[in-house]
Predict the structure.
Amino acid sequence: MEVKAVAKGVRVQPRKVRLVAREVRGKNAAEMVNVLRFHPSKGAFTLRKVIASAIANAEANHGMRGDRLKVSIIQVDEGPKFKRIQARAMGRANRIFKRTSHITVVVTEADAVAAPTAGTPAKPRPSFENLKSKKKAKAAPVAEVVEEVKAEEAAVEEASAEKPTAEATETTDASGEETK
């Protein structure tokens, strides 16, 4: 069952309330009332009051338990604007709009199954784990090739160290004559 609370004509800009509403939507209502108590924005202060009102409506009117409620819908609409004037130079004036909001919060029981929505299902999004495993799979043959090259170089060095040649034992001194 859905329970709704509405606050109309709240003296907060809708943009400021929407920023906080994104964080709260879909979470436990009782927890969000406590979290919003310490949020610094003016939008959080008013949104907290509306959520608390929705919880109280659900408990008093429908007998629901407040700890099992979740915020399912938060809708923030623009209310009427108060138009004010700010004096400017040379007798001119600037228009100032004091914006208001209509805030609607709908809470539902957390155990209730959500109704299916119309439209196509969401596409699966790529995750970082899949990308990392693909990169490792591509990097593995390169690592094997590098190891093979190092092994071949080591074999060549061992072969050259075991068989000293006659040219390697002969050296020349400063006068250009060979010594043995």
